[in-house]
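As noted in the main text, all predictions were made from sequence alone. Below is one such record, for Glycosyltransferase.
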Amino acid sequence: MAAKQCHIMMFPWLAFGHMLPFLEFSKKLAGKGIRVSFVSTPKNIQRLPSIPPHLVHQIELVEIPLPSVEGLPENCEATVDVQLEQIQYLKKACDELHAPFEKLLHTDKPDLILAYTAATLGYLGPPAELKSCSRRTRHEHFAVPPDWFTFPSLVAATAILCTNSSSEICTVLTDLACQVDKGWLEFWKAVNLLQCEAVKSLKGEYLNLLEELYQRPVLPIGLLPPNLVENKTLNTVHSQWSTTFKWLDKQKLKSVVFVGFGSEYKMPIEEVHEMAIGLELSNLPFIWILRKPEGIDSLALLPPGFLTRISDRAMVNLGWAPQLEILAHPAIGGCLFHSGWGSIIESLGFGHPLILMPMVADQGLNAKLLMEKGMGYEVPRNEDGSFSRDMVSKSIRLVMGEQEGEPFRLKAAQMQTVFANHELHDNYINKFIQYLGNFKKAESDVHGRD
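Prediction:
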């Protein structure tokens, strides 16, 4: 049976940092003739970007209502809707989707299911480790690289994430580690392959290690870089954001720092003020996309007089912003951000040097990987995870212009040839589809002999 007749079901974790890459992958596959069912909850489906008209017949958006669980506020269906300490209840509700999802599988009978859980298990160790009484079940266990790494690595959770009891990434990992006796090993036996949003030049040693540990094919699918021309905001950017882009047009080439911390992290007012003064002290032009903390009046959001003092060299925008289009502007020269994987891909796709401040989830792991590869500089933090205005301003100046930051600027320019290479990433998609065709043929041959 031809690969183009394959049917893949996507079931990402309920975070837009997961759902959006899954959707982007769905569009890439659909554009090559693969039928895709994208499964999530009703509210999340409604908030996804529109499917391009020419792909609508290939991508089915499937809604599964999220069960009510104690502790999870009503109408909260993604991590962006909840406080950090409430993510545990969102995960519990997601776990209860098992029965309706299984029913869906029996009805639709997809050829392949792509879910987030298998990849998460990978960080817990090989199957033998999952059965071991010494398996990693505490937050602090993830503060150092695992023993089974066969090469030097910096990739581990940051200290603040390991000491924070509400840390999403450590909580998910420790919960999974504690649940392996409840069927996770049986689940792992059913896994046919590991699919990773990666390229070999960036994560080659990690991909090889996964394949060796789990004895499963590990298929990188490229980095799924967004297409600026196809981005749905492109036609509305200059009408809704004309003031911002006119301001950028007046700035010098590669002089402006883009500052943003994504939709997941709700920065406390104390951190907002410290960040604001740090940006001011850098004496560099910047554009800050700021998400207002809940319960904070807009008048009290920023330090007194801040907007007046920086008015001639900076802009602050509240809420959502057309990040991709801003990063594409030639005035942007660097990024101070949260180390979210999607933002990493967008930033390096334009060759911007990275100033890293991981806050939640897997951002600390991403930051460590970038530091290991010489692709980013992490803002120093205090032992409790806090940062100071001086740490922020010094880090910005270092990466943006000082001699010590030259390697980061050069590396970012070099990596643009990888991150923005759509032909390279398309080849990874083609190899993935080729594997699916071979897999389906082998399955068909086996069943034909039965």
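The two ends are 17 Å apart (CA to CA). The mean pLDDT is 84. These features were considered when defining construct boundaries for the mutagenesis experiments described in Section 2.9.
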